[in-house]
Amino acid sequence: MEPPAPIPLNRVSLTGAELGNLETALNGGHLGADGPFTRRCEALLEEMLGGGRVLLTTSGTHALELAALLLDVAPGDEVVVPAFSFPSTASAFALRGARPVFCDIRPDTLNLDEARLEALLGGRTRAVVPVHYAGIGCEMEAITAAADRRGTSVVEDAALGLGGRRHGQALGRLGRLSALSFHATKAAGCGVGGALVVNDPGLVERAEVLRDRGTDRARMLRGEVGPYTWQEPGSSWAPSDLLAAVLCAQLEALSALLGRRRRIWERYQEALATWAEERGVRLPAAPPGCIPAWTVFWLLLPDPGRRAGLIDRLAARGVEAAVHYQPLHLSPAGRRLGGRPGDCPVTEGVCERLLRLPLHAELGDEDVERIVAALVEGW
Ligand SMILES: Cc1ncc(COP(=O)(O)O)c(C=O)c1O
Q1: Which of 26, 232, 245, 342 is 20 to 30 A from 306, alpha carbon to alpha carbon?
Q2: pTM for the structure as a whole
Q3: Residue 125 and residue 117: Cα distance in Å, rounded?
């Protein structure tokens, strides 16, 4: 008998509407930016988030880069980011010449530790960029209060957050600016894509200009000006409507896609709770008032020595499991900024011990049972 196909860590779950949308976009002839599918995606996202002005971008990274440009981040500025994140969280601001300052994370949610934030804020801090790891909301109230006291902006890196909520508010609505990602690994994906959510109405018009090659083309499209002209340095961060056509199908099915992820997450919790407790393994848990976006299901192993072997044993049983972020302050770029071992001890410990299990809407119930059995046997 053929061995069952390996279970991948991530997979885009096609809804069936993507091809039809692509055909409509191709036949409609609007293949450039800001076509009908882009407008539909933006309206859908604004509705889901309960407000804000959403601008689709070519990636989550580009949404962060647009945020940095929009806040006039410049050499001499500092931007506080969690040491446990994807490189783009820091890189988007470093690209403008700012110095990332790395903040350690909370041991429970693995989100930026608000208790350590105050000490890192100074006269040069231009922004704080919290990340909702695994789609579980950060301590945004404390983070925002600390940023407000210093007159600095919060840019919410909600790349993993779409669909999650904190105290009734959607993740993606909690920063002055917020970045979303539609990378293939996310609940709704179009391969590579993202969005900037402009939650400060005063920044909307300039955000449109910077995203559209530094021009006022958006105002022209609304009939507010004649031929559009160059306003200031900007870039080309708006995606083709072909990508928006794929994304639109995904966003229209988002609640079903999230619902499936939620059921898998809950089954992992149920099947592994006792097993994990007996072995000193920690599983993710949402604090009161937080509804996760069900983006990552992680295990925190009691010791780093076990992880590589466990990944191999899971692979031998046809299950792809993986590590996640590496400490930003210890990366080559982080070390050039002065990062040293011991600067962010919680991040360093977590990065050595964290393991991700497959989590995507294509997993069937029998796949989930296979993953649980492989973990228990492979331990
Ligand atoms: C926290 C975080 N921020 C930003 C990004 C970058 O998003 P994108 O891949 O859409 O550029 C990622 C990617 O997964 C991420 O995990």
Answers
A1: 342
A2: 0.97
A3: 11
